[in-house]
Amino acid sequence: MRKLHYILIFLGFALLFPISAKQNQKSETPSTYRVTKGDSWFGIARKFKVSPETLAKLNGRTTSENLYERELLRIPKGNEKLTFAPESVLKEKPSNPLDRKERVLKKFSELTYDPHKGIQFQRGVSSLVRASLPGKVVHVDYMDGYENFVILEHQNGLYSVYGNLERIQVTEGQQVKSKDRLGILAKDKGLYFQVNQNKQNLNPEKILEGGI
Fold first, then answer.
1. I need a surface site. Which of 54, 63, 71, 88 has the fewest CB within 10 A?
2. What are the residue boundaries of the LysM domain, all occurrences included (predicted)?
3. How many domains does the chain have?
């Protein structure tokens, strides 16, 4: 079920539905949370509407440390509870996912008759694919038309997708830094690169040029 979640994010479907105000009024924030497979600091923080840094600090950790399945986390409540704090806003500019800047063959498009949820780079001299931002590897898979692909989860509901890989060099659950190696491109295809924020597809070219 978790894999289906990330595949649908990759395809651009709206999965992360906000809880209604009515539901929020009736439910109380639990004091603890048991980590399950595939969880990340950012995902858990978003679920309980706190900043990832607040959640990690309360548990004596940092967001760069890995979580462990079945680990019990304290959840901020009362005065500890914060909405996404300014410190959780992405401060660094995303880096190019390729060693060199390659020409974009197919651009991002929101046109209903010709949608394209990401960008397709030309296959040039660059073959090494790197993480554009620090985050967690949440899904590794294969799909016809996109070959092997990797999905990273970042802060503030942001996801990046890297497709047309011949060889993947990361594993699910792994924390990566910006410019860390993700894999090697297929010999006959350029990189497919997609960026989502929650259920919205963003234009990767604009993000690479000006940040988020």
1. 71
2. 31-75
3. 2
Picking from 88, 115, 134, the residue at the C-terminal end of a domain is 88
Which tokens go with 73? 């986390």
Listed residue (30, 52, 55, 29) closest to 42, CA to CA: 52
Q: Is the pLDDT of residue 81 over 70?
A: no
Residues 127 and 66 in one domain: no
Residues 200 and 149 in one domain: yes
Contact criterion met (CB below 8 Å) for 161 and 125 = no
Lowest mean pLDDT among 5-14, 98-107, 174-183: 5-14
N-to-C CA span, the chain: 30
Mean pLDDT value across residues 123-129: 92
- 110 and 26 assigned to the same domain: no
Q: Residues 62, 145: one domain?
A: no
Count CA within 13 A, CB hemisphere, residue 210: 4
Range of the domain at 205: 104-210
Do residue 19 and residue 64 come from a single domain? Answer: yes
Q: How far apart are CA 194 and CA 99, in angstroms?
A: 17
Between 27-31, 70-74, 109-113, 169-173, the lowest mean confidence (pLDDT) is in 27-31
Separation CA 162–CA 191 (nearest Å): 7
Q: State the pTM of this model.
A: 0.66
